[in-house]
């Protein structure tokens, strides 16, 4: 029988409910079969951990095979900016990387795999610096692709119509 290599995966979701829920679902799927030698640490802000676990701080770490845990970074966005996605997105992209890197340096056992939300973008630089393989999570539902194809068709048709209009008039 071949030996199982232990993997410690850091899961880094974009700090919004739909992204965190999607990342938690992926992590549950990855950890669903015991005996695969995997530990997953989901990295969230302190505020999001309190939203996930409510008043019971042990709640998020309750899973049947003890392979998923949470680790927190300080809140990187002031509450005032949370309502406006543009500034929120910019702050997350500018200020979240350093606390995550510091956290990864402290985790024991050391992280040797990263799953990151594609919306963040900066985890690629982090993974390259630390020489850790990275996988991306694209958390948009399949319905998006149905809508995207209709936009593409509309854009193509409208561009064609605009071109015809300019050519004939």
UniProtKB/TrEMBL annotation:
It comes from the Eukaryota. GO terms for molecular function: quercetin 3-O-glucosyltransferase activity; quercetin 7-O-glucosyltransferase activity. The chain crosses the membrane at residues 135-157. SUPFAM superfamilies: UDP-Glycosyltransferase/glycogen phosphorylase (SSF53756). Keywords: Membrane, Transmembrane, Transmembrane helix. PANTHER family: GLUCOSYL/GLUCURONOSYL TRANSFERASES, UDP-GLYCOSYLTRANSFERASE 85A1-RELATED. Belongs to the UDP-glycosyltransferase family. This is Udp-glycosyltransferase 87a2. It comes from Quercus suber (Cork oak).
């Amino acid at each position: 029988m071949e030996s199982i290599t232990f993997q410690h995966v850091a899961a880094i979701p974009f700090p919004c409910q739909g992204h965190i829920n999607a990342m938690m679902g992926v992590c549950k799927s990855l950890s669903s079969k015991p005996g695969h030698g995997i530990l997953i640490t989901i990295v969230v802000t302190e505020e999001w951990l309190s939203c996930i676990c409510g008043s019971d701080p042990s709640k998020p770490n309750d899973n049947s095979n003890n392979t998923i845990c949470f680790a927190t970074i300080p809140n990187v966005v002031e509450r005032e900016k949370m309502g406006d996605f543009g500034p929120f997105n910019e702050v997350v992209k500018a200020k979240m990387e350093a606390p995550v890197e510091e956290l990864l340096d402290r985790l024991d056992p050391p992280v040797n795999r990263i799953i990151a939300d594609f919306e963040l973008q900066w985890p690629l630089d982090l993974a390259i610096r630390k020489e850790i393989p990275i996988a991306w999570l694209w958390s948009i539902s399949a319905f998006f692709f149905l809508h995207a194809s209709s936009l593409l068709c509309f854009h193509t048709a409208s561009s064609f119509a605009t071109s015809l209009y300019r050519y004939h008039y």
